[in-house]
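ping. complex inputs:
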Amino acid sequence: MLETLQNLSLGFSVALSPPVLLYAVVGCIIGTLVGVLPGVGPLAGISLLLPATFGLNATTAIVLLAGIYYGAMYGGSTTSILMRIPGEAASVMTCIDGYAMTRKGRAGAALAIAAIGSYIAGTVSVVGLMFLAPPLASFALRFGPPEMFALMLLGLLVLAYMSGGSMAKSLAMAALGLLFGMIGIDPMTGFFRFHYGLVELGDGIGVVPVAVGLFGLSEILLTAGQATPPEVLKPKLRELLPSRQEWRDSVWPIGRGTVLGFLIGIIPGSAHIISSFVSYAVERRLSRHPERFGQGAVEGVAGPESANNSATSGAFVPMLALGVPSGPIPAVMMAAMMIHGISPGPLLITQQPELFWGFIASMYVGNVVLLILNLPMVGVFVNLLRIPYPILYPAILVFCVLGVYAVNGSVVDVWLMAVMGALGYLLRKFDFETAPVVLGLVLAPMLEMSFRQSLAMSSGNYAIFVNRPIAATMLLVGLGLLLLSLRPILTRGMDWRRRLGHEANPGLEEGNP
Amino acid sequence: MVTVDRVGGTALVLLALGVAWEAQKLPVGTPHNPGPGFLPLLLAIALGVFGTVVVAFGGNSEPLSSLGWGEGRHAIAILGACAFAAMALERFGYRLTILLILVVLFGVVERKRPLPVAVLSLALSLGSFYLFYNLLRVQLPRGPFGF
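pong. complex structure:
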């Protein structure tokens, strides 16, 4: 403990040195901008700016890139809350209740809770990163393909079970998302599936055009032509702050989101995305008023936002402690370190203590910088709502097109966004949730790969999924959820969702779309 | 009665049949040694099953006639703008394409006055280009004469 604190003080002496501090601030500002703009997510932002770090020393380069990473996670919530456009896939769940809060005139509160939740989660998870990195990283290494398959299946089942509408509809949407994820080159055999002559589909369908189409564009399609356009909101200063009740409602979701996000973040995969889905589902299940979800429940913002920021720190655990990147973003960060002649891994802490502890301390500093940057900006961002919708939506559409095109520089993505926008419009008209489609798409490649790898490991024996304790436990929980969802049919009783009045109120937005 | 859920569920079943038809053209393999078509086929079956459940329990949902399509004209115009963007971005360049889209949306669809249309369209198309292309170094297509 004492040694850790000594090391941390060494880290702060590095992080608070003027050049490192400057790059942390610059990284946070760029990251926030990158997160606010739809389409240009943290991966694109880091990749684009990687060459700019070549002239820097290793510590400032990593601090700058890390600042972009968690700045983007902060910034991604802004467009989700104000315009229902996820800045990146991890902000999808924030769209649901964040945007509903905006429509109720609570945009300022939602943005403030998101910023504070992100700050708390970011800071607490760095403590976790400091103390728990080595043991947690070795636990995460026990996740082989069967455990990964079970985890992803469980994630889909949890989301479907916790959703407001019928579980069959949610599972159908998850299956649809998984099917979208099957498009492209099969990673195990190289077979090109469902391409219909479009070579651009080789890498599969991108998450950004699908998320922007299903959420952002479908919202514009549903809202722009309404007989009475959305009211122009003129928030007052006191309305920018969360009420006492909103603070109370957010405390536990922030705490749970932090722990959940950190633990999920360690596991390889698109952890920060999955963590926000799982956190939303957990908050809905634990809430005494789940019927409020989808209609502007502050817990639906606090939990996922905390979780995705906490997962950001969690993702650094296997990268720093073991030299194993847990996703594409840590992989790019690792590449940046290697360019500077540093090999992340167990020896990093002992051989490069200034870099390791300087990086850890800069995360504390970065979180404070982000809070200072974001809270005063709440008022600025909320003023966007003063713009009448007939003027606002063409501008949003421009950013949708631009953001989607910018990811790969491909017009195929713009076509995909248009198709997904039309699909999202119809799905929401017909009362289907769109969030499981996005989760299915994100998980599909990993799910398929782990499924087939597991069978390859066991020579085609499905017992591998039940013989391994972690995988078996997760599958058992998933089966339990399925049985629980069948209980109302078997007992001819009423579904808890029905009791809570969802079916009686079909107008509920995303909560029961 | 034709209800929203029954129509939605039927659409899912039809989609599942289409996907299953396409998936069986791929090497499916066996359950013990799945090929690239195995999981798509399995998912198509799952989609069909869930769609059938939605149809079966969809009798109590809202009638199809209750769905309003008042925003349809706007929706088609906006989707048309997206399609135009996809077709024109790399031919006319970013600035010209976005300028045209905004002029149509502000001027024709929303019937705003010419001066605000011109100011907003120019400011948004040129401003967003400057922000992304010049400041963020995002590669955006240029059209004829480098515009």
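Residues 4-66 of chain B form one domain.
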